[in-house]
Amino acid sequence: MKLVLPPLNALRAFEAAGRLGSFKEAAAELHVTPGAVSQQVRLLEAWLGAPLFERRNRQVTLTPAAKAWLEEIGPLFEKISQATARYGVIEAVSRTLSVSAPATFTLRWLVPRLAKFRAGHPDFEVKVETSNGPLESLKEDHDVVIRGGPDTFYGYSMRPFLSEDRLPVCSPDLLKRVPLREPGDLRQHTLLHTSSLPRLWPDWLASARIPNLRPAATLTFDHFYLTLQAAIDGIGIAMGPTALVADDLAAGRLVAPFASPRLPSRSYCTYVPDEKVDDERVVLFRSWLEREGMSS
């Protein structure tokens, strides 16, 4: 039996306009103009050889025959929508890699490099959620969790991929205004702090053998990426993690006035649920992180 189907775009416009009782509302739902909906409805009327709406003073009302037709075809659109949603979810899950990573790491290291991963694997969708919470507190399952380490968690495979130290960094323009020739010159500057990392400056100053240094001022932020941005903007001097400021140092947005001392820091590691260790997406993403980490 040969199928007799009207123009499907026109049918979709008719269904929306008839269900909503308005060309304007149908246009909003379909993300087109009301004129486009009107044009599609007229196309369908021409194909059928019969009117579908009674038009009076910008008001549209279904004809009795069109109303009966809509009652038959309307549920079919709902079934198509439901079937497509179920199929789409299955496909999306199979292609989506879910990653949880700390906010500053994501902003300053992962995001600038993700385009390279996507270029090499265009069939993967990467969903990144930022969190600084401990792995065991996560409420949702993720394919890959990035946190500091190395740590051991039951049911997870751990692999380090990026190491770093911490040392003072600042804008080159700041040094032009107030030079830093030795660590003691920090007393003339504003030291930038992060509330979640209160020991960074005290520990570095102790390593530099000036534990009692009093800076000209201090400024504290609640997020580390804000602290680093303040350093780039020339507001003060921050304790910069070498891995996360490497791009800024290379581009000249930041400079490191002192090569030492350097505070050791935990490595960035991937934690993967045991049942997902052999998942192709996970294997590829993990290997890519490790290659990027080696070249950073």
Description of the molecule:
The protein is of the alpha/beta class and 296 residues long. The chain folds into three domains: 8-93, Winged helix-like DNA-binding domain superfamily/Winged helix DNA-binding domain (Arc Repressor Mutant, subunit A); 95-163 and 267-295, D-Maltodextrin-Binding Protein, domain 2; 165-264, Periplasmic binding protein-like II (D-Maltodextrin-Binding Protein, domain 2). Helix content is 46%, strand content 21%. The chain is built from ten helices and twelve strands. Strands 4-3-5-12-6 form a five-stranded mixed beta sheet. A three-stranded antiparallel beta sheet has the order 10-7-11. It has a two-stranded antiparallel ribbon with strand order 1-2. Helix 1 (8-20) crosses helix 3 and helix 1 crosses helix 4. The longest helix has 32 residues, at 64-95. Residues 6-63 form the HTH lysR-type domain. Belongs to the LysR transcriptional regulatory family. Keywords: DNA-binding, Transcription, Transcription regulation. One of its GO terms (biological process) is DNA-templated transcription.
